[in-house]
Amino acid sequence: MPSFLQGRHSGIVAPLDRANVDTDAIFPKQYGRSTARSGYGDVLFDSWRYLDPGDLGQDHSKRRRNPDFVLNQPALRGATVLLARGNFGCGSSREHAVWALRDYGFKAVMAPSFGDIFRQNCPLGGVAALTLNAGDVDALFAMAQHQVLNVSIDLMAGRVQAGPRSFGFNVSQRERHLLTQDGDWIAATLTQRPAIAAFEAARLTRQPWLAKTLEN
């Protein structure tokens, strides 16, 4: 099922006030020995979330939780939007990091910037990586300090509504397609058939000798 039904989502924001959060912090390497593509919600931010170390196959419900970590705050249980600082998802190209966010229940991550590969993996894993201006992220963190912050995200309009304030974000058409439709990068690319056909026609006009090459 698409993560953004009809291109919209509303939910509670979990403010993670840290920059340069790498994929090993999001999904520690010891859990990567599993070949499964799901079931990683309990180990999201594992070393920050728990006070004792964990490993694959462990019963995480019996581990001691860090009461100071944002996801362990009772008021933020059920949060579906993560607010972070710059360069979120940097480090190794670990798809499991996106799967852990998705399996926890996050539909979107809002930050000023993302690790490139992480951002590419996000829509494929059903998580929206929304790039906001740094000043807008500051404003959202300030709002989250004084209340449980709820936001409404309109993926098609590129807007986040938080109380009376509205913030814009950047997301590509292919990312919108992946988050609102059941499909992959190929299906998203094929939505651009007219543009592809126009490009090919213009290219053959500029380089007509290529037509003979293609025929051969």
| Helical content band | 25-40%
Provide the spatial order of strands within the biggest beta sheet.
4-3-2-1-5-6-7
Largest sheet at a glance?
7 strands, mixed
Strand content: 15-25%
**Helix and strand sequence:** EHHEHEHEHEEEHHHH
Please tally the helical runs, counting DSSP H or I stretches of 4 or more residues. 9
The averaged pLDDT comes out at 91
The CATH architecture of the largest domain comes to Alpha-Beta Barrel
CATH top level class name of the largest domain: Alpha Beta
InterPro entries: 3-IsopropMal_deHydase_ssu (IPR004431), Aconitase/3IPM_dehydase_swvl (IPR015928), AconitaseA/IPMdHydase_ssu_swvl (IPR000573), IPMI_Swivel (IPR033940), LeuD (IPR050075)
EC number: 4.2.1.33
Pfam family, one: Aconitase_C
Catalytic activity: (2R,3S)-3-isopropylmalate = (2S)-2-isopropylmalate
